[in-house]
């Protein structure tokens, strides 16, 4: 009786010393390798961030954004491959024939293919999103998803093959499936434009107003703080619209991506101060002006986190 009890225990001990130890080492090696890949990915992204955003006035280049997103995706794919290969090695060490699993795996794959069409669509959409460089880490975007509703707006914090994670102006985390994206508005691609419409009474001297606004543009471009945000001197576009009571004069400026809201806010303050010195009163309660400013302020809140 004792011999019969000892025999299974001896077999178990031999298995633990042999294949059991191999399985343990394979799993441990996979965990360490996956952590190494994750650590390497973080080091690369940290180096990209340190080299592309030296100060608040500097923004990431498009190449840096793409490298950051691509590094995150490759890290995720590498970890998935490591654990997938580990599963096959463990099954082989356990004595489970992999060839015998081909038929069940095929049936299971077909079932998952029909049930996981959305996941496959998300992955394919994420692949083209990253390869086409539609947006990347740190971009300020507005994403319209399938089904309508308000677009998801904010700063891109993470891009994988399946999802895009945004940080909204209110600090909320918004996760969007890549397969559900139907429209993307990138507010921080290459360069941006600050547009300021100045409503003045129809009785005002428009030529004098334009001279004042040109002077404001020159002073803004000469300012050391704004000069780092502007790509060139703000230009006077002239009269944009007119009515019996008011005239809208527009001034525009090309800025670094994501900095158009800060420049617009500064230009408005300079314009109001300069026109008040000239005795020109701005029209109050003009429909759309307050709404536009509020929308820009909200979007600027998201851009400040980039």
Description:
- This protein is an alpha+beta fold.
- Among the domains are: 2-96; 192-303, Alpha-Beta Plaits.
- It has helices spanning 2-52, 62-93, 102-115, 117-131, 206-222, 224-227, 260-277, 289-303; strands at residues 140-145, 152-159, 163-167, 173-177, 181-186, 192-201, 235-242, 246-255.
- A five-stranded antiparallel β-sheet has the order 4-3-2-1-5.
- The protein is elongated.
Itemize the secondary structure elements and their pairings.
Elements: H1 2-52, H2 62-93, H3 102-115, H4 117-131, E1 140-145, E2 152-159, E3 163-167, E4 173-177, E5 181-186, E6 192-201, H5 206-222, H6 224-227, E7 235-242, E8 246-255, H7 260-277, H8 289-303
Antiparallel strand pairs: 1-2, 1-5, 2-3, 3-4, 6-8, 7-8
Helix pairs in contact: 1-2, 5-7, 7-8
Summary, kept brief:
The protein is built from 8 helices and 8 strands, in the order H-H-H-H-E-E-E-E-E-E-H-H-E-E-H-H. The strands form 2 sheets. A 5-stranded antiparallel β-sheet has the order 4-3-2-1-5. A 3-stranded antiparallel β-sheet has the order 6-8-7.
